[in-house]
Design goal:
The chain has 315 residues and is mainly beta. The protein has one domain (6-41, 55-312). The chain is 6% helix and 55% strand. The protein has 3 helices and 20 strands. It has helices spanning 76-84, 235-238, 240-246; strands at residues 10-15, 27-28, 33-45, 55-70, 88-93, 97-102, 111-116, 121-137, 143-151, 155-158, 165-166, 178-182, 196-204, 207-212, 215-220, 224-232, 250-262, 265-285, 288-297, 306-312. The strands form 3 sheets. It has a 16-stranded antiparallel beta sheet that branches. Strands 2-11 form a two-stranded parallel ribbon. The protein is globular. The relative contact order is 0.17.
Length: 315
């Protein structure tokens, strides 16, 4: 008998029609690792006069997972939908380029995730996104993406669905990222922050699982949205300190570009935010005197707080 190989444990997912009701897996992530583990909340009991516990029992069982790796223009179509809700999609070039616009929606999808090989696998139904984070390195060229996931209890001994598809890997390149900082929404995308070194974007506390009679359900929570801009501590990089002191909102755009889809149309990932300054530090980064500006995503008087726009070849 040979040991089961880790490299043969394929992870794939399907989009559920009803939250928590398992469906066959149809897709595989284009990049990164999708992993899941059981999560048990346990309780111990010890009777009087005993040196050790009588028992340990499981009060509540769910599972926790992650999807982590290089951000991918194609893979982000489903991944951003899991985090924010279904996008508004328009055709840019017929059969070649599509624009997907995401804002946080009250209605968000769930996945069934399968992990295993052709001999044995397990599945998790009702998978939700707990958080999503991007890190783009202008100097390093790195582009990392991470989602924290949660689902119901693991079901072992299933047969892994055959024939799931994997879209071509089209990486988001951190070195293409441009940052714009402007005083009004109307000017958003006008003023380039030329000294950008690294950008970190995080949406946390997106949702939670709660247990009711009959099973688990999803509840949306108040999000923890932050942006961190690391830039050269020149006049532009230091100017965030003044806005932090006065609680003056600013509008930030972070945008990357990829390969050509058709003519002048390229792959593109754009983050737009309304932010307030939350912290400001100065120090060394890659031998450069740099400023790290911690920004909090806020809602403006017109109700705008964020939008994510993805242009790719996925309909």
């Amino acid at each position: 008998m040979s040991a089961r190989s880790y490299v043969e444990q394929r992870a794939q997912y399907g989009k559920e029609a009803t939250a928590g009701t398992a469906v066959p897996a149809t897709s595989r992530p284009s990049t990164g690792k999708l992993e899941f583990n059981p999560k048990q909340d346990t309780e111990r009991d010890r009777s009087s006069g005993e040196y050790v516990d009588n028992l340990v029992y499981v009060k509540r069982e769910t599972s926790e997972g992650s999807l982590e790796g290089v951000a991918c223009y194609n893979g982000l179509t489903d991944q951003l939908a899991l985090a924010f809700g279904a996008p508004t999609t328009t055709v840019v070039v017929a059969d070649k380029a599509f624009k997907h616009e995401y804002v946080l929606s009250a209605s968000r999808p769930t996945w069934t995730v399968q992990v295993g090989d052709a001999v044995s696998a397990f599945e998790v139904a009702g998978v939700i996104a707990k958080s999503v984070e991007f890190e783009l390195g202008n100097n390093s060229g790195d582009s990392s993406f991470k989602m924290e996931l949660e689902g119901g209890a693991i079901t072992d001994g299933i047969t892994r669905t055959a024939g799931s598809t994997k879209l071509p890997a089209r990486p988001v390149l951190g070195g293409t990222a441009k940052v714009y900082v402007d005083p009004t929404f109307e000017e958003l995308g006008t003023t380039l922050l030329a000294g950008g070194l690294k950008e970190t974007i995080k949406f946390g506390d997106l949702a939670d699982l709660i247990r009711l009679v009959g099973g688990y359900t999803t509840v949306n929570t108040a999000i923890d949205g932050t942006v961190e801009l690391l830039s050269v501590a020149d006049t532009a990089g230091r100017s965030f300190l003044a806005s932090l002191r006065t609680s003056t909102p600013r509008y930030v755009r972070i945008e990357t570009t990829g390969l050509v889809l058709d003519g002048a149309v390229k792959e593109k990932l754009t983050f737009d935010f309304c932010v307030n300054g939350e912290s400001h530090e100065r120090g060394e980064e890659d031998a450069v005197y740099a400023a790290t500006n911690g920004l909090r995503i806020v809602v403006d008087a017109n109700g705008f707080s964020h939008k994510v726009t993805l242009v790719n070849s996925v309909a």
